Amino acid sequence: MATVATGGGMPSGPRTFVREATGLTKDISLFDVFVYNTNNQNIGIGVMFIILFVPAFYTGASMLWGAIIAGLLALAHAVTYALFAAAMPRSGGDYVYISRTLSPVLGFISSFNWLVWMTVYVGIPAAYFGQYGLSTLFRMLAAATGNPDLVRLAEFWQEPLGIFLAGSALILLFTVIFIVGTKLYFRVQNITFLIATLGIVVAAIIAFANGRSDFVSRFNEYVAAAGGVASALDIAQAQSGDAPRGFDWYQTFLSLSLPLYIVLYSITSSIIGGEVKNARKAQIFGMPGSVVYTTLWMVLLIGGFQLLAGYDLLGHIGAVDPGALGLDFTPTFIELAGAMVYKNLFLVLLLGVGFLLWTYVWLPINFLASTRILLAWSFDRLMPEKLAYVSPRFHTPVISILVVLVLGEISLALYAWQVVLHSIVGIFGWILSFVLTAIAAIVFPYRRREDFEASPVNWRIGNVPVMSVVGVLSLISLLVCEAVFWLDPFVGLRYLPNVQVLTVGVLVAGALLYYLAKYIQRARGIRIEYAFREIPPE
C-alpha cells in the first residue's frame, strides 16, 4: 500500500485503501464520549416531548414506566455497539462492523441509511434551537421583565424564517468548529453540557420543592405575564377535551416511541471510534453508562413534574390549542418550572439558557458522525477520494465537513417550511441498521474469530461469547422497538405510506450506490471487495 498522505496528493496505481492512515488523531477522552452520547439522547428535548405528548395523547400511559422500559430496551443495544467499538475502534461504526462481518453491501446500505437520517437530524435540531430554545427563553424573559416586545421576539423564532436563520447560524458555527478541530468541539461540548445540566438540576429542585396548588396559581400568573389569558389552566381543562383515564399498559407500550426516540442513540460515538483514546474503557462506559444516566434523569424529571402539576393537568396543557390560552406555542416543561420563579430574572436565565443548550445538541453529534461515514466510504473507495482529504494543519476532513454543511442546510429548510420532514417518522428505518449490527455481533466471534480473540472483549460465558449473547438480547429488544414504531398511531410506519416508501427507497438507493461504485472501481482496475477482508486503517 501507499505511504501515509493527509493532503490532496495521492500516489498513482490501484491499491486497497486510499492511504495507510486516516490522518485523524486520537483526541477523544472517556468523558468526551460520555457527554457526546448523553447529548445524543438529549435529556432536555426528550423530557419535553414526553411531558408534552404522553399525558395529552396517550391517555392512561405511564410516563415513568415508559422511561424505565425504554432504558432497559436500549441497554443491550448500547452494550452491543460498545463491544464492537472496542473490538474494531475505527471511524465508520456500523459500516465497518457489518461490512467486515456480514457483507460489504449490507454494511454500505446500513451506513447509507445512517447518513440519510443523520443529515436530516443536522437540520431538525438546528430548527429546534429557535423553535423551542430561543422562543422559550424569550417568552420567559418577557414574563420576567414585563416587556411585550420580547413576546413578539419569542414568536418570531417559531416562524419559518426565524427557525431557518437561527438554525443556519448554528450550522455555520459548527462547520467552522469542526474544520478547526475536534479538540475545540469537545471543549465547547463539555462546557455547555455542564451549564445545560445545571439548568435541569434547578428545574428538578423547583419541581420537587413546590406543591400543586402553588403551581396552579403561579402558572396562571405566568401565562398572563407572557401575554396570555387569565385563568389559563381552567381554560385548558375546559377546552382540551382530555378525559382522565386509568393506567393503560397498551398505551404505555405505544408511548415508548417518545423515550425510545431518546435512549436508542447512545451509540453514535461508535462512528468516531478511530479517534477515541482507550476505546474499550471509553466506549463501554460512554455508551451503556450514558443510557443509565439519561434514564435516571428522565425518571427524576418526569416524577418531579408529575408531582408538581399532576398527570391530568399536564395532559390538559399538552392537548389544548395554545391559542386558546393566548399563547403562540405550547409551554415546555422548563416553562412550567420557570412559572414558579418567573419573577426571579437570574433563575429564569439559568433555566432558559440551560434548556437552550439542550435544544440543538443532536446537530454537532450527527454532523461529526456524518463526516466520518463519508471518510470511511472514501477510504474503501466507495466514494470520491476527495472526501478522504484530511487537512494537514487541522487533521479534519474539510471536504466531507462542507458536504454535510450543504445537506444540513437542505434538511433545515425542508423542516422550517414544513415541506417534507417531521421529527420522529424516520426512526423505524433507522433501527433497521441497528438490527443488522445486532446480527453482526452475534456472528462476529465465529466469522472473524482471529479478530475477536485478539480483541479486548473476547469474553465468554462457558464456551459462548458474551458478544453473541448480548447481540441476541439486542436483536430481541430492537424488534420490540420496531413494533412500537410500526404501531404508534401518531408516528407509526403502519399509518404513513409515504414514509414506508421513503424507508424502502433509502435502502434500495444504498444498494444501487454500492454496486455503482463497485462497477466504476472495477473499470479502473480496483477490486473494492478486497478492502473488506481487512479492518480499515486507523
Describe this structure in words.
With 538 residues, this protein is mainly α. It has one domain: Up-down Bundle (Amino acid/polyamine transporter I). Helix content is 69%, strand content 1%. The chain contains 23 helices and two strands. The protein has a two-stranded antiparallel ribbon with strand order 1-2. A hairpin with a 2-residue loop joins β1 and β2. The two termini are 14 Å apart.
Question: Topology of this structure?
Answer:
Elements: H1 30-41, H2 43-57, H3 63-87, H4 94-101, H5 104-145, H6 148-156, H7 160-180, H8 182-209, H9 212-225, H10 232-239, H11 249-255, H12 257-263, H13 279-286, H14 288-309, H15 311-319, H16 333-340, H17 345-359, H18 362-379, H19 398-416, H20 427-447, H21 449-454, E1 460-461, E2 464-465, H22 466-487, H23 497-523
Antiparallel strand pairs: 1-2
Helix pairs in contact: 1-8, 1-13, 1-14, 2-12, 2-14, 2-15, 3-13, 3-14, 3-20, 3-22, 4-5, 4-20, 5-6, 5-7, 5-9, 5-17, 5-18, 5-19, 5-20, 5-23, 7-8, 7-19, 8-14, 8-16, 8-17, 9-16, 10-15, 16-17, 18-19, 20-22
Question: What would you give as the CATH superfamily?
Answer: Amino acid/polyamine transporter I
**CATH overall fold name:** Amino acid/polyamine transporter I
Work out the helicity level.
55-70%
**Radius of gyration, rounded?**
24 Å
Which CATH C-level class is it?
Mainly Alpha
* Low-confidence region ranges: 1-13
**Number of structural domains:** 1
- The average pLDDT value, as a whole number, equals 92
How far the N terminus sits from the C terminus, by CA atoms, comes to: 14 Å
Total of helices: 23
